Amino acid sequence: MNVSEALQTRYSVRGYLDEPVPDTVIREVFDTARLAASNTNTQPWHVAVVSGDACDRLRDELCALFDAGAEQDRGFPGGARLEGVYLDRQRACGFGYYATMGVERKDMEGRARIARKNFELFGAPHVAFFSMPRTCGYPQAVDLGILLQTVMLVMVEKGIGCIAQGSLAGYPGPVREIADLPEENEILFGLSFGYEDTEAHINTVRMDRAALDEIATFTS
Fold this sequence. Notes:
220 residues
């Protein structure tokens, strides 16, 4: 598989088999992904991978906070307010997801069940938390995005499903208690991963992309 094929075939996986990825394969993924580019080669990232019983405990604690309506406490500010076509795309993503799962827009309980799946890690047996020192800024956040994309593409190559989740930065307390996270770091996002359950209806969710001429210009 080449990079183009990986990009054309990957999608966010939201349903997983109860089968862990071997530790050796997980290490291979991140050992390859560490070659990703970064601004002036600072490599400002840290990845904390949680598996097994620790992953189950973390899942339970995150869900307990969500169920209690606990306020999220991000170390770095959340995304900016979206407007125009960007807001339209965000809404289309959400409504398309709800529609696939048979949840109507006005069904707030159904939407909450869908949101909870983020903190259930979609049933994945592994989760990785991507963090950087709190002294870093947006250039380093871009670097972590480059690392994340690299990890995701390597996982496609190795037959591993994954889903990137900004929501997993919202409850850092349990993550700090369970994961091996540097004290000076703050979480930007998480990545749940494992082997895809190809029979799970939730994995039929697909999102389209804007046409090339909508997102790029070419001048000569």
